[in-house]
Structures are given as structure tokens and as C-alpha cells.
Amino acid sequence: MSRSIDKPADVPRTHRLRTVIEMGACLAILVALFRTFLAGGYLIETGSMAPCLVGHHRRAVCPSCRFPFAVEGSSTSIKTVCPNCGKGGIAVDKLPRNDGDHLLVHRGIFEFRRPRRWEVAVFRNPNKPTQAYVKRIIGLPGESLRIEEGDVFVSGEIQAKSYATQRGIRVPVYDHDYRPPADEPDWRPRWVVENGDRQWHDSDGSFRFLPDPKLEKPRAAWVNYRHWIRRGGSHATSVPLASWPDSLEPLKNGFGPLKYDEEQGILACRGALPVDLRDQLLNGVRDPEFRRTIEKLYDASHVAPITDVYGYNRGHEGQGHHEVRDLMFSANVLLHDGPGQFVLAIGDGAEEFRCVFDVPSRKVRLIDSRTGRAMRTAHLGEALLKAPVMVEFSLMDRQVLLAIAGQLAFEPWRYAGPRQRGERPVSPARFGAVGTAVEVGSLKLFRDVYYTDDSGRRAVDAPLALKPNEYFVLGDNSPVSKDSRSWPPRVVLSSEMFLGKPLVVHLPSRKKRFQIGSWQTEIRIPELSQIRYIH
Questions:
Q1: Is the pTM of the predicted complex or chain greater than 0.85?
Q2: 297-306, 445-454, 511-520, range with the lowest pLDDT
Q3: Which of 211, 241, 315, 355 has the least CB density, counted as fewest CB within 10 Å?
Q4: What is the number of structural domains in the chain?
Q5: Contact indicator for 256, 282 with CB cutoff of 8 Å
Q6: Are the C-beta atoms of 135 and 473 separated by less than 8 Å?
């Protein structure tokens, strides 16, 4: 007698619906319990942590380079400047106002361990306990802290950031994927092939190196970064000029930023020479030597130091008043098998370091350019020879590190360095190659936060001795942040005031105007790409 296997009866639709409802209810309960006991949601209202975390803002897009960036959202009439290419006069008054970042905060983490330096934390404002603040922890209990030239020192020793912290705190300087059109009259490329070497080819924003087979002895060819600005700045530039043309009025009669030293034969300019002033000087002057001098001064004056510009800030506070030499270079790199090398170089004026990718030996070495000594060596995997891989090279806090595909290639190298840095490097970051084909794309340059050290603030004029249970916090957006630097001496942030550690920016969205006929409204559009972990 054969035995049949009964087929299961169809599950009634009502039963399936009840199961879904029960699962949804259980999930809602779990989420509620998680948010009640372990996590909480906080809304960022101000821009003191921008660009890591933004408060109420307007989302602008540069009309020149198409770079998207957040602008402080309270004003309705301000015009802003693109932090990527320096394009000015960008109107934001018509843009929708967005809420700040929503944070998911781990509430209980500091009940099990002490807060750590460089962590982002939520705490009760010591000046107003009913108000929650979000800042970055800088000083720990019992330390002697000082802020000097934008860096943090404890007991006289500079405090270096980890790779993860550098990536969380870094501020964009220039993204080559968002570059202005080449025909804009007040713009020049920031990545430039040195001496026009034809081994490097610029192809739609990517650079490709093809060794010249005709060369008897292969030579290294470089691509240099120069920080070309459209206008403004307070840096000084000078060129030799034998004499001032008789056909032009003396400079004292209204030539703005220019100054001519007749005895020394030096023509100096403060900031970038305006194009209208350049044309005014050239108009009617036929002397070819003078014309070449003015053109040379114009080009040289527009190559400026990198400063602490904040696209988020309004007016004076966003312009950048401090030179920043702590940088991180990032690019996607593809190496082709061959007998040569690919080199990254980064310097601060006093020191320069190179990472040499030696293709034949599959090694990468960190070298002090001044002495030629190798401080670190690591094995170079095959990934860079198969597909473009993100390479990050930074010099921050007197520490040099290299990361490949998000992983440190070797232990970061720390160096003493002089307190006073040397002359500004002509090219703070560059890359080169010799003997083997290389492709470099998605070039990006970032800077470190420069902690402003206005006189009269705590931990600025003299070291600050923190109490046994006192923490010192700063905002990433240092020019506008109200933090421990400005609190009265009697105001102390203690461990009992911490509310938790932000883990992730969640539920990001932006407003968009929607119109049908004469009726219009604003709707929220989710921006899943903005969901991110907080470092």
C-alpha cells in the first residue's frame, strides 16, 4: 500500500495578514525599547560641527563647478562663495531651508567607559543644562591643554588623530571631479603637469602617465597642485620691476593692493591681483617687459595658501583667515606592471614626505624627501594592478600616514618638526611617475580643522589645567563654535553631563518645492546617500 504525502493546506490570507501585523508590532516594540534604553534621536540645530554635522541649512550647488555644499540656513539674503572653486555671488535666498542632521545616539556608552579624545559626544550644555550640545572631545581630566597654531597640545606634546578621525574631521579643499569649465576667464587648473611634460595626459579629469620610449634614461614627471583662487586673499606676492612706467600715475593715487619699492625695484601685491586692475595697468602701456611683469604678477598672486575656508559660514567668518598646511590627498590609482615607480609627495614647508610605489618589487616605502631615508616599508598587494583603488596620503599633526583601500599600509610615522614652519610650499601635494604606466583619477584634497586661537580664550594664551573631572570640547567649525574656549572658568563639563555618543546620521532629507498651477508646497525627499557613520 503506497503512502501519499499530504500537501500543506493553503495559508488563509487573514492568517498571513495577522502574521505580518504581529511581526510589525514586535519590530516596533523592539525599536521603541532600543530607542528608550539604548539610543535616542537628536537634531542638530547649529553649524558648530560643520561640515561633519550640519544644522539648519540650505543646500547650494555652485553654478561654475557644480559642487554641492551646505550653507547656514537662517539668512534669506546672503550670497555665498563656493568652497571648492571660489566662485562668488551665489544666491541662496530662493533655496529651501532644510533641517539639521538627525543623529542616532548611543545613550549608555559612557556608563561603561570614559569618553576618549577626538570622539564626538552629546552632553548637557554646562551654561544651560536643559540644552543639548554636540562637540568633539579634545581635553581629558587632569591634562594641561593648549591650542597653538590650530593644533592641540597636551603637556607640550601635539595630539595626533587616527586615520578614522582624520576621515571624519577633514574639510574638503578641492574636488577635481567638480572643476569649473576651462574657458572661465578667472579660473586656472589647480592640478598642473610640471613643465608641460608630455608623458602625463589629462583626460576628462583623470591623469594618465605613459612612459616615453624614446628617452634613453627615463625621467620622473610630476603633476603639482597649486591653490589657484579667483579673488581676495591676504597673502603677499612680489616680482622684480626695474622702473615704473611714466605713462601711469604713481601707485599712491589709487592702485589698491599694489605697492612699488623704487629703491629695491620690487612690485608687490596683497592678495590676488584683480583682473580689472591688471587690465588697467596694461591699457596703454606698450613696454613688453612691463606687460610680462604684470602678467607674471597676476598669475603668481592667484596662487594662494590654503586657508580655513568654511562654505557653511556666512560673510566674514567663512572667508578663511588662517593658513592650513595639514592636508590629506586622495585619489583612485591604477598601476600597470612595469619597471618603474609611482610617487606621492606632501609637504608643509618645513618637511616633505614621499610614498614610493615600486612596481617590480611590489613594495611601498615612506621616504623623508630631505634626507632620503626610508622610515616605513610595506608589501604592495596586487589590487592596485587590477583596478583603480583609493589611496589616501596625509600629513596632519606632525604625523604621516598612507591608506590603501581604506586600510593603513603601515604604522603612521610621527616626527618632531619645528614650531615655526618654513616658507609656504609652492606645491603642497603632488604625484609623479617614472618608467611605468599609471592612471590617477577622482583627485581630492582635504585639510585638517584649524582650531582658531583668538587672544583671551581659554587654553590659548597659556596652558589650561583641567580639573580631575573636567573635559574640554571644541566644535569642528572652529570660527563660529561656542565651546570650552569661551566658557567662564567656573563652568565645567563633567562626566555626569554626557548624554551619549552619536553613531550615525539617519533619516536625512532635503526640501524641494513642488508646484501644480498656482498651488505650490514643499516636500521632503530622502537622501539615502547622506546616511553616514560619525567619526
A1: yes
A2: 511-520
A3: 315
A4: 4
A5: no
A6: yes
